[in-house]
């Protein structure tokens, strides 16, 4: 374990790293409880609409799925069994798309559409593709599970409030026919029970909406293999684009910078050669001036080449992250506490990704966060590398907000890594990157 301080005085957070900024930005416990109560009682209109409108869709889809399974089992031993199942799976795919649209419109759960079916040549080949389509079978399972959830959701959103209204109005209903009936404990119990159950309805609707969101996300999206292929394709395209941009930038810098310096050096040496070959003898004063100029131009060219090659592979990484990261934090304008627990050295490619992720996150802190201090921790355990960067800035960072976090997430995805961002308004911001120590 290594704990050092770079870029300023030691922070008050100490070695534990558990300190939190204090002030009015963070709500007190009663305020937090009030927020939680408001969240519990607030139900979006789309969630109520999904519970009501979703019942016919649930009945249609569930009935279709059960009929398909029943008829498919009966026809499985006949000639028409497999064609029937194949056609039914295509229908399940379309119904899954309908439910996916409904979940996106009403619940706000926009599930990515799975890839379309391949169309090989030949009837039997196409039938085999349909029968082995994981997306269609998962959609069929969704339709079966959605049936009881749809009935339960409608009962919770419609039948339960109506029943509670009947219980609350029980003292009135029972006196419609007998106005002389005295009030009793049953009247009070019905009112209390009705109000108590009614207060639980919003929470129940929200809970069922959460279950429906997770079910749609799990069964109506692309299969895990397809999703992984898409992620890798997107990450590869991003890396190729980044590498192309870097090569073009390197070519431009070499042409406009280093090449121009070397041409100037060659001209200076040519002038020095002319000074040596002067008919009246070498002009030592002019020759000394030219050699001093050539020496300066050589230093400038070397410095330029070092600057250009630094982005290709940091020399500091030759000694591993334990040597590279302290040097990186030393250049940060924000004081950074660094904690290293490197039980094993990761793969060189993984080290490079971790190094540039740390550099990008520290740059974001300096440019956008307004933080007074930051903490960088890197650890390796169980075949994983974990990079954690925390700052006490203003917060509000998120993927896709133009601070480079989306690019980092795509770079991490290329090496089977993930990026998590926790940055509430007012801070603190915590960014965690996890990736394997070895490439598969």
Q: What does this entry look like structurally?
A:
The protein has 440 residues and is of the alpha+beta class. Helix content is 64%, strand content 9%. The protein has helices at residues 29-41, 45-75, 81-107, 123-131, 134-168, 170-177, 185-219, 224-276, 284-310, 321-330, 348-369, 405-414; strands spanning 2-6, 336-341, 374-381, 384-391, 418-422, 429-436. It has a six-stranded mixed beta sheet with strand order 1-2-3-4-6-5. Strand 3 and strand 4 (384-391) form a beta hairpin. 24% of the residues are buried.
The helicity comes to 55-70%
Mean of pLDDT: 78
Low-pLDDT stretches: 1-37
Number of domains: 3
Strand order of the largest sheet: 1-2-3-4-6-5
Strand content: 5-15%
What structural class do you assign from the helix and strand content?
alpha+beta
**Over the alpha carbons, how many angstroms does the gyration radius reach?**
34 Å
How widely separated are the two ends? 28 Å
Let me know the number of strands. 6
The major beta sheet can be summarized as: 6 strands, mixed
What order do the helices and strands follow?
EHHHHHHHHHHEHEEHEE
Shape: elongated
* Number of contiguous helices: 12
């Amino acid at each position: 374990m290594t704990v050092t301080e770079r870029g300023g005085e030691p922070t008050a957070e100490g070695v534990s790293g558990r300190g939190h900024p204090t002030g009015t930005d963070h709500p007190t416990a009663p305020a937090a409880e009030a927020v939680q109560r408001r969240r519990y009682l607030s139900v979006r209109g789309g969630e109520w609409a999904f519970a009501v409108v979703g019942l016919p869709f649930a009945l249609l889809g569930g009935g279709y799925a059960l009929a398909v399974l029943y008829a498919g089992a009966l026809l499985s031993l006949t000639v028409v069994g497999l064609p029937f199942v194949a056609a039914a799976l295509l229908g399940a795919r379309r119904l899954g798309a309908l439910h996916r649209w409904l979940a996106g419109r009403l619940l706000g759960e926009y599930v990515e559409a799975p890839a379309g079916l391949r169309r090989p040549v030949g009837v039997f080949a196409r039938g085999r593709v349909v029968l082995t389509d994981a997306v269609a079978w998962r959609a069929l399972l969704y339709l079966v599970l959605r049936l009881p959830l749809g009935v339960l959701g409608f009962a919770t959103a419609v039948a339960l409030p109506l029943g509670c209204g009947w219980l609350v109005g029980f003292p009135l209903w029972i006196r419609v026919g007998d106005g002389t009936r005295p009030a009793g404990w049953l009247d009070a119990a019905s009112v209390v029970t009705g109000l108590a159950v009614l207060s639980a309805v919003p929470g129940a609707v929200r809970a069922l909406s959460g279950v429906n969101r997770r079910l749609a996300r799990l069964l109506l999206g692309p299969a895990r293999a397809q999703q992984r292929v898409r992620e890798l394709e997107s990450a590869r395209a991003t890396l190729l684009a980044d590498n192309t941009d870097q090569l073009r930038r390197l070519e431009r810098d070499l042409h406009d910078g280093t090449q121009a310096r070397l041409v100037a050096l060659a001209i200076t040496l040519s002038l020095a050669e002319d000074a040596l070959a002067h008919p009246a003898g070498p002009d030592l004063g002019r020759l000394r001036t030219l050699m001093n100029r050539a020496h300066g131009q050589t230093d400038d060219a070397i410095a330029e080449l070092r600057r250009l090659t630094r982005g290709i592979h940091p020399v500091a990484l030759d000694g591993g992250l334990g040597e590279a990261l302290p040097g990186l934090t030393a250049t940060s304008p924000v004081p950074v506490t660094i904690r290293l627990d490197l039980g094993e050295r990761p793969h060189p490619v993984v080290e490079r990704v971790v190094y540039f992720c740390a550099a990008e996150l520290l740059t974001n802190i300096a440019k956008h966060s307004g933080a007074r201090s930051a903490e960088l921790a890197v650890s390796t355990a169980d075949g994983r590398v974990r990079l954690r960067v925390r700052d006490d800035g203003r917060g509000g960072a998120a993927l896709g907000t133009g601070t480079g976090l989306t690019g980092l997430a795509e770079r991490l995805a290329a090496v089977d890594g993930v990026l998590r961002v926790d940055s509430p308004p007012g801070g603190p911001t915590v960014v965690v990157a996890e990736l394997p120590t070895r490439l598969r």
